[in-house]
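dumping this here before i forget
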Amino acid sequence: MNLKVIALAAVALSAVALPSTADARCRGCAVGAGVVGGLALGAIIGSSIANSQPRYAEPAPVYGGPPAYYAPEYVEGPVCHIERQRFWDGYGWRHRRVEVCD
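structure:
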């Protein structure tokens, strides 16, 4: 629909921009009419592009099986906790935190 309006506007502007016999001796008139016609056509095309809304195409649904891996909700394993240990570093006693798993 917008392309029809743009084509109609281009035809109308080209009919107006053609010189008639009355102004055939004017040397700079065709340049001015071309500039004005180009600006008007640019405004029409720009406004039709600005008023068009983006189209959204919903992707096709994809059906597949469950994933190849299965992670159970509760995995039994070692219970870990943090302990504070005292160690000798060669110059004195220091403390550090160490993760200990039972």
